[in-house]
Amino acid sequence: MNGILFGERELRTIAERAMRAAKGDQAEALVIGKTVSLTRFANSAIHQNVTSREAELRVRVVLGTRRATATTNRLDDDGIRRAAELASDLARRAPEDPTFPGLPAPRPIPSAPSGYVEKTAEATPLDRARAAKTLCDKASAVKLIAAGFVATNVQEIAVASTLGTWAYAPQTYAEAQIAAIGGDGSAFAQRVSTDVTGLDVEGAAAEAVGKAAIAQHPRDLAPDTYEVVLTPYAVRDMVSFLGMQLNGLAVEEGRSFVGGKIGQKVTGPITLVEDPFDSRSIPRPFDFEGQPSDRVALIENGVARAVVYDSVTAHRNKAINTGHALPFVGLPAPMHLRLEAGDKTREQLVAGVKKGVLVTRFWYTRWVHQLRTIVTGMTRDGTFAIVDGEIAHPVKNFRFTQSYHEALGGVRGASKDLSLLVAGEQFGLMTSCQRVPALHLAAFTFTGSTRY
Amino acid sequence: MRRDEENALVKNGRLDAVDRSDSFGFGVRAMADGAWGFAASQIVSAPEADRVGALAVEIAKASALTKKRDATLAPVEAVRATYETPVDLDPFAMSFDDRIKLLMAAEARMRERKGLRTTRAAYAVWREDKLFMSSEGAEIAQRLTEVGGGIAAEAVGNGELQIRTYPDGLRYQNAGGWEILTRWDLMVNAERVADEAVALLSAKPCPQDTITSVILSGNQLSLQCHESCGHPIELDRALGSEAAFAGTSFLTPDKLGTFRYGSAQVNIRIDATSKGGLGTFGFDDEGVPASEGWAVKDGIFVGYLMSRETAAALGTRSNGTMRADGWARVPIIRMTNVSVMPGNAGTLDDLIADTDDGILMDTNRSWSIDDKRFNFQFGTEIGWEIKKGKRRDMVRNPTYTGLTPEFWGSCDAICSESEWVMWGTPNCGKGQPGQGAHTGHGAAPARFRDVRVGVIK
Questions:
Q1: What distances in angstroms separate CA B196 from CA A369, B113, B122, B274, B349, one per listed residue?
Q2: Distance of alpha carbon A183 from alpha carbon B256, whole angstroms
Q3: Which residue, of A210, A232, A262, is where some domain finishes?
Q4: Which of B51, B95, B271, B332 has the fewest C-beta atoms under 10 angstroms from its C-beta?
Q5: B20 interfacial to chain A (CB closer than 8 Å)
Q6: What CA–CA distance (Å, rounded) separates B231 from B243?
Q7: Would you call B246 an interface residue with chain A, using a CB distance cutoff of 8 Å?
Q8: DSSP per residue over A25-61, as a string?
Q9: Contact criterion met (CB < 8 Å) for B96 and A90
Q10: Contacting residues of A for B63, CB less than 8 Å apart
């Protein structure tokens, strides 16, 4: 192992010390190590360039049906003991919870493709700066301004419990984002790869710069319901929002669009799978309780098939734990969503639109009505009118207010290539990724527009 | 920097989660060859400080690869100083039992109402101890303490999921001690929010795609201010530093001092000294003292939130708004307390009585705004029709939308100081890697004319 990884042995030592110091019937230790390195540029120059190496321990102590957690990054003996004692003390004072089933018993974790690439972990500040320079130079060459970042990230997740659970996986991912900005229009591109040597920086530059060139001087187009072609950046947003509803807690609390509809048609002919073993994603075969994560078909050909669970929500709802606990106990979520590919090229998707809109990216998307999956947000960084199967001209950005699952009711095509993407706001710990195609949808409702 | 937090959530009669956390470490921001580098570590020792300092310089030199010009900083006096949030009741000195019993009791009161699916009560106690030192000679020690929390009732039925909360989602938070939470009467309001959540299931929908007058509650106006004033006055955004992520700003420097942002009623203050604000401190993370000034005066845009580097670009001095989300993140410009100052419209009841026709909208439920901060759309938990000066029928799923300068330009009344409350946003996201900030926003209810409401069908 290199100097970036903490390593399985060190994380196991921390976990075992914590469990020994805990005073309860059961104890669990979650240890997360991460090195976040990100080189950020704007106005075609690097302005923020950071790296941090962090590790933290979360101890969960159970006393009967009472439990509490304590989290610390002080990983010397005193710090570990203090966290374990704090969690023990809080658990002792917590009220009983008859619905709590105790920690999950250990289960074998199947093998999965590695999500760790040594070269990504070893990337240097100069490597990232050179990639950033490539992105900036490509934009500057055609008198555009570049903004974005190049990042290389390493994270290790280890889970242990006094019941015998042990799970450990290192992961890496490299990411490049660029917005190419002209005087009156911009365009965006993103690339993600577990292997920094496979990070397509040149491709991102070419995509953003090429699209920005035709994004200048957008025209007004009246907000209305249009056919749309969504690039994978926009589709990722839709899939992420629907993923928030495809879990046992959302069904239990009455906020899921599939509540009471398992086995029924809820979208058009799409298939959405939670696949922790997808070798082309950032695989990890267990969750943050150290339970094996199942591959789960959530929506098959438009029919709702299942939702994911963690140990607590599975017990409460008399369901099978699919192994999808997030670090925040009691909140399950799919973490490796894949929207299955179609059979068209992206050009063919556009060619299939008589009159519509091409959307590069959604921005600032928020629930308006969760149960109906109505989301509002803006388009951004490359929105175009499509006329007679061709991109006609850029248009000013729209506000949309649209039910995401109803929009997927009108799927007219999906691209045959999938893009691996991650959300932009993960605060350092990457818990989920998505692989999605571009989509052609029959109807998408834009409810307003802005001035650019 | 050391951060201590405790978060607890009571849900449906059980303690769903309680977590106590601490995080300790240091960060070094270095300028070398005219460019910036930042490195951080949780191993607080002299050898590690040497390593991290050298790494920050190495990173800065790598940054210089794309440099267009040397980074320059506006001057600041290097001082030795301390600051501590005034606290009446130290939340970390109380017993856990005393903290949790408030939540358990309020949550139980909500569950007395039949027809609710989910009930929640939560608190957050937060403390940060930090030492800032610079090679210019500054040495500043600060202790910041915050407390927050609230209650929420959810009802499901008729194809609807409706929520009511008090005092402001589960995200109400202020700087100070436990007294912040106890001054809100959670027990009395538990019954009210439970009743309103159930009543919303059968309330009439918000009028669709209608232009009318809107009165916003103080907590909703505080978020409106955060999104449509606080962010666009961040000078790093206006100068392009956030262009690929958080976005830029329609308030470009050429508009400073002349652009009509809102009506003459609108006065918005930047004040890092306000009592109880989440943006209240002694010094920012560049060692610049807390300051106060105007963002919008009599409707005219007159002031930015600035760092030393961005202030230098405008030929002025920083007003002290650089803050980092913990030891592992680089300081960036964040809102301090950006507050809509009270007007003279009296109480909320007075304002309703003065309104012939409109909708009162209370407590945020949905928020979105474009990347230059023009086009926004908000939804609130609840609304009431106003007819001939009276609050009438409850409406569900209220939404309103507009363009920032037109919206603030239509503001014709703001309630008086008696209605003004220091609200807060403890989860403001910005930066890459992502950073969360705690920002303060004082506001009182206000009225806006000719607003488009009822966006969803």
A1: 17, 10, 19, 33, 19
A2: 21
A3: A210
A4: B95
A5: yes
A6: 13
A7: no
A8: SEEEEEEEEEEEEEEEEETTEEEEEEEEEEEEEEEEE
A9: yes
A10: 39, 46-47, 49, 129
- State pLDDT tens for residues B366-397: 999 999 999 999 999 999 999 999 999 999 99
- Report the phi/psi class of residue B205: left, alpha or beta, with left for phi > 0 and alpha for psi in -120 to 50: beta
Task: From the options 2.60.120.620, 1.10.150.130, 3.30.2290.10, 3.40.190.10, give the CATH code of B2-23+81-202.
Answer: 3.30.2290.10
Q: Which of B11, B20, B156, B235 to mutate to test the interface with A (most CBs of A within 10 A)?
A: B20
pLDDT at residue A424 in the model: 64
Give A107 to chain B, closest Cα distance, Å.
24
- Mutation for testing the B interface, residue in A369, A422, A445 having most B CBs under 10 Å: A369
| A203 and A143 belong to one structural domain | yes
Which residue ranges of chain B lie beneath pLDDT 70? none
Whether residue B370 and residue A363 make contact (CB cut-off 8 A), yes or no, is yes
Residue in B14, B67, B456 nearest the CB of A368: B456
Nearest to A72 by CA among A14, A20, A26: A14
Which of A87, A399, A427 is opposite residue B377, by nearest beta carbon? A399
What distance in Å separates the CA atoms of residue A215 and residue A211, rounded to the nearest whole number? 6
- Give the integer Cα–Cα distance in Å for A6 and A31: 10
State yes or no: ipTM above 0.90: yes
Give the closest-approach CA distance of B179 to chain A in angstroms: 22
Same domain, yes or no, for A189 and A333?
A: no
How do residues B90-121 score in pLDDT, each as one tens digit? 999 999 999 999 999 999 999 999 999 999 99
Are B156 and A254 in contact (CB < 8 Å)? yes
Asked if A189 and A245 sit in the same domain, the reply is: no
Q: Which residue does chain B place closest to A368, by CA atoms? A: B366
- Tell me the C-alpha distance between B268 and B261, whole Å: 10
pLDDT tens for residues A420-438? 999 865 556 889 999 999 9
User: B162 to chain A nearest CA, in Å?
Assistant: 9
